[in-house]
Design brief:
By secondary structure, the chain is an alpha+beta fold. It contains 13 helices and five strands. The protein has a five-stranded antiparallel beta sheet. A hairpin with a 5-residue loop joins strand 1 and strand 2. The protein is elongated and about 65 Å long. 29% of the residues are buried.
Length: 277
């Protein structure tokens, strides 16, 4: 569903996006093959932008597809981008491709989430990490942020929870500023209010290896690792997130594929030994 703000004109909204991107009127005009004067007139409401101009400005401001639809509606035009449910027959090839991608990444964990971190699909590497999580948190619809930060979820087993939690909340905060989603804000408020579980020993085990010995490297030199206890061992992962290039559908635009790469040989060996092939 496209969110529309009826009391806000398209000009001020475009100005807000431009300022958020830290682009001057002149720079935006040059990118959009227009003039700074015309951009100024649009932003102040003195000139009504054409449909093509709204789309051009949105493209050069890198505005999310859902928000482009909202801008078009506010400007008096029809939405340009459809929002096709992922279970629609038209999405069958996409679903199959995602499932093949997740399976190919095994034994390493990988999952696909939507714009509010709802879990769309996950592989057996993720299933391994979720062992021991209460059934109530595993009942659909699953949410990746809830599973990670809930006191009964993965949070008690994340050795470096303060750092990992802060990173996830900062990621959500940046996304809220970008897409202005009430549902995402509600989720943020919920997970940010979760009490952080206290650890028994009170000390992070950032240098402990998967088998209890010293680890050659946790990956912290190039990315913040997630250190997760599993089966009496500490596994170390660095995550990466991929999205679709130039999506033409709101649903597809908001999908993200998150993969967890072992940050050391011990973690990789553990996954190969415990995730069914």
């Amino acid at each position: 569903m496209t969110t529309v703000l009826p009391d806000t004109g398209v000009g001020p909204l475009l100005r807000d996006w431009r300022e958020q991107r830290r682009i001057s009127q002149l720079e935006l005009a040059l990118r959009a093959d227009s003039s700074a004067r015309h951009i100024s007139f649009i932003e102040t409401g003195r000139s009504r932008p054409s449909e093509d101009m709204v789309l051009r400005l949105a493209e050069h401001l890198d505005i999310p597809v859902r928000e482009r639809n909202a801008l078009l509606v506010i400007a008096g035009y029809a939405p340009r981008y459809p929002q096709t449910p992922l279970d629609d027959p038209a999405m069958a090839s996409l679903r199959e491709s995602l499932e093949r991608l997740l399976a190919a990444y095994e034994p390493y964990p990988a999952l696909v989430v939507d714009g509010t971190y709802g879990v769309v699909a996950a592989n057996r590497g993720i299933a391994l990490l979720l062992e021991g999580v209460p059934e109530k948190l595993l009942t659909p619809p699953l949410n990746a942020m809830r599973l990670t930060l809930h006191p009964e979820g993965l949070a008690p087993r994340i050795v470096n929870l303060p750092e990992w939690r802060a990173d996830l909340l900062a990621q959500m905060d940046r996304q809220i500023a970008l897409v202005r989603s009430p549902a995402l804000r509600e989720l943020y408020d919920e997970v940010a209010a979760y009490p952080a579980p206290a650890r028994a020993d009170g000390t992070p085990r950032a240098t402990e290896g998967a088998g209890g010995e010293g680890r050659e490297g946790t990956g912290s030199a190039f990315a913040l690792p997630m250190l997760l206890e599993h089966g009496g061992r500490v596994l170390s992962f660095v995550s990466s997130i991929a999205t679709f290039n130039t999506p033409m559908d709101v649903t597809v635009a908001e999908l993200a594929i998150e993969t967890f790469l072992p940050a050391d040989r011990e973690t990789a060996a553990y996954l190969h030994a415990h995730v069914p092939s």
